[in-house]
Amino acid sequence: MERKSIGVSKKRKPSGAAVIRPDLTDKLFRALFEEWARTGYVGISLERVAACAGIGKAAIYRRWASKREFASDAIASIEIAMLDPTDHGSLKADARAFLQATRTVLRHPLVRRIIADLVAERLRSGELATVLDRAAMARRQFGHGLLDRAINRHELHENLDRELALDLLFSPLYMRMIIQGKNVTRAELDRQVIAIDAGIKACCFSA
C-alpha cells in the first residue's frame, strides 16, 4: 500500500504545484510588465496578467504569495540582467559597461514607465518600499564589487566615501532617462563615464 501511494504521488507531480517552469515564469514577468505599464501598480489585475500569459491565475499563486512578491521578483529579474560582474580592467571600463547595460534596460518604454510608477507608488503607500530597497541593494552590492576592484588596482584610495561614489555611478543616467525622459546617445554616455570616473576618484574623505 505504501509503495502504491508513492507511485501515485510521482505520477501527479507534473501537473502539481511543485513543477515551476522557468519559461512560464519569464512569460508571466512579460505579461506583468505590460499590465503594469498600462495601468500602474494599483491597477494591476492578476487575472488579466494570467490571461495575457495564456495560463490560469493559480499558476501565479504557485510561484508568489502576493502581487508584491510577484512584482519584486519581476524587478529583480531586470536588475540581474544589467549586473555583469566581469572585470573590464579599469574603473572607467567597468563603469562604461555598467552604464551601457543600464542604458539598454532603461531605453525599453515599459521599463521606463514602470520605474517611474514604482517610485511614485512608494511615496503614496509604501507597499513597494521593499521592492525598491531590494533592487537598490542589488545594484549597490554590484557597485561595491566594482569599487573593490578599482581599489585593488590602486585606482582608488581605501579612504573612499563609498556611498557617495555609488550615488555617482548611477544617478546621472537615471536623472537623464527617467526624470527628464530623454534618450542618451553613445557620445553622451561616454561623457558621463568620464565625469563619473573623475567624480568617484574625488570621493575620498578628508584627512
Automatic annotation (TrEMBL):
PROSITE patterns xref list: HTH_TETR_2 (PS50977)
Keyword Transcription belongs to the record: yes
One Pfam family here: TetR_N
Residue ranges of DNA binding: 45-64
Protein name as annotated: Bacterial regulatory proteins, tetR family
Gene Ontology molecular function, alphabetical: DNA binding
Matching InterPro entries: Homeodomain-like_sf, HTH_TetR, Tet_transcr_reg_TetR-rel_C_sf, TetR_C
UniProt lineage: Bacteria, Pseudomonadati, Pseudomonadota, Alphaproteobacteria, Rhodobacterales
UniProt keywords, alphabetically: DNA-binding, Transcription, Transcription regulation
All residue ranges annotated as the HTH tetR-type domain in the record: 22-82
